[in-house]
Amino acid sequence: MKYCSECGSEVSLKIPAGDSRERHVCDSCGLIHYLNPRIIAGTLPVYEDKILLCKRAIEPRRGYWTLPAGFMENGETTAQAAARETIEEAEANVNIHGLYTVFNLPHISQVYMFFRSDVIDGHFGVGEESLETQLFDEADIPWDELAFPTIHRTLKLYFEDRKTGHYPVRLEDIQPRVKKS
Ligand SMILES: [Zn+2]
Description:
The protein has 181 residues and is an alpha+beta fold. The protein contains two helices and eleven strands; from the N terminus they run βββββββαβββαβ. The protein folds into two domains: 1-35, Single Sheet (Ubiquitin Ligase Nedd4, Chain: W); 38-173, Nucleoside Triphosphate Pyrophosphohydrolase. Strand 1 and strand 2 form a beta hairpin. The model has no long low-confidence stretch (mean pLDDT 96).
């Protein structure tokens, strides 16, 4: 951040009184600009035991498969955000059943939340941010072409839990990928 969103003056990094971290503080009006983690909400959309995945049309990870998910907007709940993203990316209306996975990604200051859901009437399409959408049986999941570790983990946990029909909420921390030498 270089300029104050309130008055347009330059900002400097400093520790405000009573704080313990550096913040962007406006040199002119004194406004403190807090930067906090962002929440990404998505669904695990199921229809007749198949999972609806979207092939990403946008970077990052263009051409890789993902569950529908995206950044929350102001004024909506996490479940509303997840359902909205599912309409936008897969043109699918879903019944949300409940929170399923939560991932902390502290290295990029993001939190992912996925909800289990049913695709209403099995209707879906290809949204603006997708190249293609498809229902996958467990045996056909493109494990090597999944966009993010959060997607991989959510699918792995789901197929494991499906054996018992019991879906406890899972909270996991995801660390940065280690580059293979
Ligand atoms: Zn300012």
